[in-house]
Design a protein that fits this description.
alpha+beta
């Protein structure tokens, strides 16, 4: 099969994207998707996304992890797919699409950023030195004093595969408070390694870093791949609404591959 693909990245979180509105790529197997995402023998990416049609939305997002299995919501992926949809002719200032975790809105900013509305969060586990919540994907959040010194692969893997999380997996975020916001590094399940950025992960980290008082906040976030911003309203002790993940979404290259 010959596949025409596009490579996008959002703060270093990179994706292979295909236009599947005609169903041409619906038959891709888990092994084939993993091959496309392989950084040595394929194109190389943290995941693969398909742009698909939906009768009630501007488009549908289908997301697969780098291991080839269908994944939960990917925030940076949603922003990149929105930019790709515009390239494919879905040229609106605001779009509505459906993903595995439900409907989303996305907006384009004059600086080229894409703002993605995330699902509301109405539950958060607060433990001893950690938080656990779902922002479209499950996230374990741990605050540290020096995020650059953390062995994200080793420590993240230990948490992801511990007795509690081994079966379903969790993403693991290490967060340091800095002068203007937070710095986040993430171990992603499905990739099974640290990624340069994780949209649902930085969202989870920003919510846990919010002041305790109810109100509307904007949290600047640094990742290995660049700068993001999370805006939201804290509505209660462990509940949040009007959550927006904001950042760049950039075309890297396009090409063809035979598999």
């Amino acid at each position: 099969m010959n596949i025409h693909f596009y490579k996008y990245q959002g703060t270093g979180n990179d994706f292979v994207i295909v236009d599947n509105r005609n169903g041409a790529y619906s038959g891709l197997t888990t092994a084939q998707i993993a091959h496309l995402c392989d950084r040595r023998f394929g194109i190389g990416a943290d995941g693969l996304m398909m742009l698909e049609t939906h009768p009630e939305y501007d488009f549908q997002m289908k997301y697969y992890n780098a291991d080839g299995r269908e994944g939960s919501m990917c925030g940076n992926g949603g922003r990149c797919l929105t930019a790709f949809a515009r390239q494919m002719g879905i040229d609106k200032k605001e779009v509505r699409f459906i993903a595995v975790d439900g409907p989303h809105e996305a907006r384009f900013r004059e600086n080229g950023w894409v703002n993605l509305k995330m699902q509301n969060v109405d539950w958060m586990e607060v433990g001893n030195m950690y938080f656990y919540l779902n922002t479209g994907s499950p996230h374990f959040v741990k605050f540290v004093t020096d995020v650059q010194e953390v062995d994200v692969y080793q420590q993240g893997r230990e948490i992801r595969y511990n007795e509690r999380f081994a079966a379903e997996g969790t993403n693991v975020n290490f967060v340091q408070e800095v002068d203007n916001g937070i710095f986040v590094r993430t171990y992603e399940r499905g990739v099974e390694d640290e990624t340069y950025s994780c949209g649902t992960g930085v969202t989870a980290a920003a919510l846990t870093a919010a002041p305790a008082e109810a109100g509307t906040y904007n949290i600047p976030v640094e990742t290995l791949g660049g700068h993001l911003e999370i805006s939201f309203t804290r509505t209660g002790e462990r509940s949040f609404s009007d959550i927006w993940l904001c950042g760049p979404a950039t075309l890297v290259f396009e090409g063809n591959i035979n598999i």
